[in-house]
Amino acid sequence: MSRIPSHVFMEVQVEPCMLEGFANEDGLWYESREDVELKLRASKHKYLLLNVIRELMESCLTARQRQCILLYYFEGKSLREIGTILQLHFTTVQQHLHAGISRLKKALREELPEVSWTGC
């Protein structure tokens, strides 16, 4: 009797109706109604918070701070890439980021005092 080595993968065709049993409480990908509702509420909260942050970025940051934050956090650019784009030294970019984030944190605490900002 030949044994298939554990590192060999086999592709097997399965009818879609056979997979219906996987989406239950015992299944790997099961999400209860409460789980889905919690994720939805968290997603809505995150969306609202991002809108507040974008508004605060317009009102309380300098143009350079705003550019650096957008490029770093929203576009995923490195400090050196941002420096090249804005023709600044990367340490200057780092200073703009630090100052901008500090201003945003302060503005968020003032704008939303009811939110717990531990760790900020």
Short description:
Helix content is 62%, strand content 0%. The chain has 120 residues and is mainly α. The chain is flat.
Can you walk through the features of this model?
The protein is mostly helical and 120 residues long. It has a domain at 32-111: Arc Repressor Mutant, subunit A (Orthogonal Bundle), CATH 1.10.10. It has helices spanning 16-19, 33-60, 63-74, 79-86, 90-111. Helix 2 crosses helix 5 (90-111), helix 3 (63-74) packs across helix 5 (90-111) and helix 4 crosses helix 5 (90-111).
List the helices and strands and how they pair.
Layout: H1 16-19, H2 33-60, H3 63-74, H4 79-86, H5 90-111
Helix pairs in contact: 2-5, 3-5, 4-5
CATH superfamily (homologous) name of the domain at 32-111? Winged helix-like DNA-binding domain superfamily/Winged helix DNA-binding domain
Kindly provide the name of the CATH class of the domain at 32-111: Mainly Alpha
Which consecutive residue ranges, at least 5 long each, have pLDDT under 50? none
CATH topology tier name of the domain at 32-111 = Arc Repressor Mutant, subunit A
Average pLDDT:
83
Give me the number of helical elements. 5
Distance between the termini: 62 Å
The SSE string, one letter per element, is HHHHH
Task: Specify the biggest β-sheet.
Answer: none
Gross geometry: flat
Features:
120 residues, Arc Repressor Mutant, subunit A, 5 helices, 0% strand, flat
